[in-house]
Amino acid sequence: MPIAAVAKESEVDVLIIGAGPAGVMCANALAMAGVNVRIIDQRPAKVAAGQADGIQPRTIEVLQSYGLAERLLREGNQMHMAAFYNPSPSGGIERTSRAPDVTAPSARYPFEVTLHQGAIEAIFLDSMSAHGVIVERPIVPTYIELSQSEEELKDPNAHPVILKHLDPSEREGDSEIVKAKFVVGADGAHSWVRKSLGISMDGEQTDYIWGVVDMVPDTDFPDIRCKCAVHSNNGSCMIIPREGDLVRLYIQLSDRDVVDPATGRVDKSKMGPEKLLAVAQKSFKPFEISTSGQIDWWTLYIIGQRVASKFSVRERVFIAGDACHTHSPKAGQGMNASMNDTHNLAWKLTHVLRGWSDLSLLQTYEFERRKYAQDLIDFDKKFSKLFSGKPRTQDNQDGVSHEEFLGAFQTFGLFTSGIGVHYEPSAITHNQHQSCASTLIVGERMVPHVFVRAADARPYDIQDLLPSDTRFKILVFVGDVANTTQAERVLRLAEEMGGQESFYRKFGHGNPSKVFDILSIASAKKQDVNYTDLPPLFRQHWSKVLLDDTDMYSRVGGGGYARYGIDQQHGAIVVVRPDGYVGIVAPFDHLKDVNTYFDSFMAQS
Amino acid sequence: MPIAAVAKESEVDVLIIGAGPAGVMCANALAMAGVNVRIIDQRPAKVAAGQADGIQPRTIEVLQSYGLAERLLREGNQMHMAAFYNPSPSGGIERTSRAPDVTAPSARYPFEVTLHQGAIEAIFLDSMSAHGVIVERPIVPTYIELSQSEEELKDPNAHPVILKHLDPSEREGDSEIVKAKFVVGADGAHSWVRKSLGISMDGEQTDYIWGVVDMVPDTDFPDIRCKCAVHSNNGSCMIIPREGDLVRLYIQLSDRDVVDPATGRVDKSKMGPEKLLAVAQKSFKPFEISTSGQIDWWTLYIIGQRVASKFSVRERVFIAGDACHTHSPKAGQGMNASMNDTHNLAWKLTHVLRGWSDLSLLQTYEFERRKYAQDLIDFDKKFSKLFSGKPRTQDNQDGVSHEEFLGAFQTFGLFTSGIGVHYEPSAITHNQHQSCASTLIVGERMVPHVFVRAADARPYDIQDLLPSDTRFKILVFVGDVANTTQAERVLRLAEEMGGQESFYRKFGHGNPSKVFDILSIASAKKQDVNYTDLPPLFRQHWSKVLLDDTDMYSRVGGGGYARYGIDQQHGAIVVVRPDGYVGIVAPFDHLKDVNTYFDSFMAQS
Known about the structure:
The first copy, chain A, is of the alpha+beta class. Chain A contains 17 helices and 28 strands. In chain A, the strands form five sheets. In chain A, strands 1, 2, 8, 9, 10, 11, 19 and 20 form an eight-stranded mixed beta sheet that branches.
């Protein structure tokens, strides 16, 4: 490739290819962190309708950590209730039961939000733009090359990725060479980045063919505003209510509906939105469903269940989102898995770029997210099979029973909600002291709970004090500071943590409160404690001291130590990663293990 | 006055004079309702710092009803806890107790929000601007005249108010004559409108002189982020924590600090922010308080306690806010009373302008708000006296005891929070059937409570379904619709309410859902009820049916019928006014009294 012929050349720290959910999550996180980042997309405009639309409970927590959940909750629909319909003895379908849509007891937002992908992406685009980053489009990448120099690859300040791209509206000569420290390929299921780097997708395509229609329905179906799994003897449907009065239907199709017998391939021209709706109408009987409006969006798909063999090349080029995993949309995981991929990656890139962490930190991205993607495919296989299977009836005793389906729906709830995502031990998750905070599982997200601020008794969910601001949060559960022995232990801990040998100074790069945010949480009551009672390191601002107590009106709060499995007398140290996952928990007398934790991936200035 | 010499002339439905809290609340409410409104202010720019800053619990509910509370809560500080300091036996002060800042158990937001007046006004200005209304400034009104023609005054379509004003940046010849249907004088304590119309202020000035400073303090005082009443033997102070790290101090002054002995008047030049702080420092001992930053704002004031003798002239010109009541700022009532004045007035003007109600409806503004203002002054007299009094000590047995002060603080809580505001019976508050919803007091604001939507089990605070959208809300508590006798009663009620004789048709102006919003609330459980079970009038959209049940996770909701004192079997009808106050409650078999209610002030098309 004659790249020397091209005039324009530039350098950037991170180049993101693709402005879908994974790309915009990444770009926004990096923009908020002040990283030198660009994002390009080959589509001329953002998505207007259709596509993915479900935001899971954990993803809402993640959006909230970037200050973006408020708008999502204002614009989106909430699914709280699920309903299950099965063949009725008198023909047609009937409701078998209703159940909570989310079965993850610790979810802060115990529901799913549905909103079309364009509106969700707009939340990120507006936030990025407030931080000075906009998507450059339409820009088509045409060439990528990774340096072969080991020296360059090991130098965090080098720009070992060369990428050529072009603006299709310009002449070829106006294309650009970008030298990047890091490239993130968030360019979808047909990822150009993945193919260019020769990364294979492992897995296979299923036989399940589904259609999707978005519309405002006219119906007498009483659960049209719930998530519904409809299993009839005339096919299966899934209902996903959306923003406003919109409803999405997933409709199971048979080969004869859509497959061209000559080629054996899906022929979209054999199907249309009216035909799709006609298929759905058969499974809804005796209920009527139609629309007096337009079909907002429709598509067909065959479920593929694949995971990329690698998520990164030399920790310089990464792939994320649909580029590294494809699966069925019906469990509403796609957009969530994608966003959480780059939520996991962005802080790691930032730390490396700032010189706070070694390049090796970036290995944990593939380690954590590929394992998750594999779990997701395993789940999807089981769920798709159950969902696409025929219902068990008098005449079909081999079919899927309602109990079996509901059981799976609820068992999988912790996984599908995103709440149960668990990262295995690595450089950034050390679980040797798990017992001192027995229910704050290392490798899982910090459990939300309401505490009150000592200075003003204002209640806060602790998650709101753990924003995605790239800092590690050091939560010092100081125990019962009214007890003088404990008060002395707290003083000693503050001295030790503030000392030269401690991670706080060692990796503080001269201004430790930029790298670490210390919060202290006492088990004592608001009537008795002054925030001024704590040592200065543990109250660097009046807002940094919390109490495990109710608010003034006993409406919220209290019981946090018990919920977290932390001893109310002696407390514990809890380190929360910048992405909100617990990194290590330790008793006061094992601060050295917290030092070791940071030693294992952080860099000194 | 030679008005004939002026060239520019215009007509407007409502002209608001003054863009303080009362003015912008009024302008925004009218703008949202699509009323032809203008608002002028003589100040060249909006307030940047200082001034009033406390938003009471009821006012937060009101802002929420206009969709404005989210931003207020994001930007403002919250006061949850109050602390009381009194003379210590060892000299100086000590904390006597902490208590909830708000003592109004039904408050939806059980705290006060503090934020500087400019930021609060900006919330309204941005909302108004989104509805196409901006403040015209600087514009100085110079002449006002009300028509003497009874015919004109009684014609709702006439423009009987003539007002001349001018843009001081233009030549006199460029001033304008505005003919208005209605004028609202929200032009402050020295109201030009009030004076021009010769309305007197009844009441007197007190002897209490106070200073105010806003600053970011350096202090070891442990309750600096709480509302504090500090009574020392060296004077009294009140602490109001503000947004960010700002704190406001109210400091009691003695005559010798500020009064010019020659004239007997307050001489602001004798005092300055440093001197004020020095007075405060004496009462804080043994705690230290100072600032390393700037004094953000300061002022001095003498409490005047006065109410205007009239709030309106012929229901064509109204005065609102500080123009009709002045009192001490320390109970944080000023801005709240002002905003609630025009919140009360705006929907009434709208209804009259739309031809939905008779002009007589406007009489209820003075009736309701003047009574409230008088109650406010009565409260203020008691509270100021207690606050400004010397504390009771060994040496001063006549002083105010802590118990006396705390008791008053809590007794007055219902009033100061705004939650207890009670409008007496009038054309728009009929209380003859109070017993059928015994705790939804007619003339008080609708009590917040969480219900779940039948269609999707999403929980909603009922207040969020009662927005300030100018419609009367008809809440049909349909009782236990699973019971067939009750289901029949509900059907009959729907027939009767939908009939030609009913208020719904009679005053519906051809499109009753524009005037009335019907919500139905069943006492049955979410597992059992379909929203489709109700008669169409009571479920005009799937979102209009609620259940008195918990959400799917039993975190919120349930017990609403009991809380409202409504029979779970038989239900009741509750009419909520457009401003969120209960207008009438009635049993199903007294729909005729609901008809009579609307007959007493509404107009047929």
